[in-house]
Specification:
This protein is of the alpha/beta class. The chain contains eight helices and eight strands; from the N terminus they run βαβαβαββαβαβααβα.
Amino acid sequence: MGLELSVIIPCRNGVNYLPEAVGGIRRQEVDAEILVVDDGSTDGTADLARSLGCTVHSIPQAGQPRAKNIGLGLTKGEFILFHDHDDVLRPGALGHLLARLRNDTSLAGVMAQAQDFVSPELDAKAAAGLLPRNGPYFGFLGATLFRRQVFELCGAFAEEHLASDAVDMLARIQAAGLVLLRDPVIVMDRRLHLSNVGRTRGKIMQFKGYAASLRQLRERERERERERERVAAGSGFGWMAAGWV
């Protein structure tokens, strides 16, 4: 039997939080290769990742989408998790997600929920500038386990969308008619701190591609909902079309 699970960590200057992220993966009690794609770090990230037992591939700084694509090319697992270096998996998360995919081969992936937390080393003034969500939420790539075939069918992450590559990919998965199961379990604690990727880019770069991808995603979901209503009205029963379940 081949390698089942690969965890890809695209990372730039991650020495502050990487040990917690890797520790959370190690505590999952599932076998997984962990690949850190070091995106031009200047703080010793690559050496730290090796000391933590990770495989490391270093590239000149190119952004997270490029790092993810390189990670896809270098890993072998049947199932793929993209994990930010500053977030932490909850105990049992990977085993739960793997079981859902093993038990239903019709699923392209399982999207569980994330929960924000403010990084505890921040003082009150710094923390006040962050806006954690009040409850758990869907839509976070790090809380989604994919089959590798998803990327063979839908292609690579869009490297021009530095701040919206995840939304763009989810829209393409939906457009391809692949099924992502929404599972309400919380699997990931998402850290908020002063150097989150979304906070360190200019607002124009951050939202230009994101807004366009999000509009496409919402329109496709509305069209699928209209199609489900048409089918239900014509046949007397509903059929769950491909897309979000």
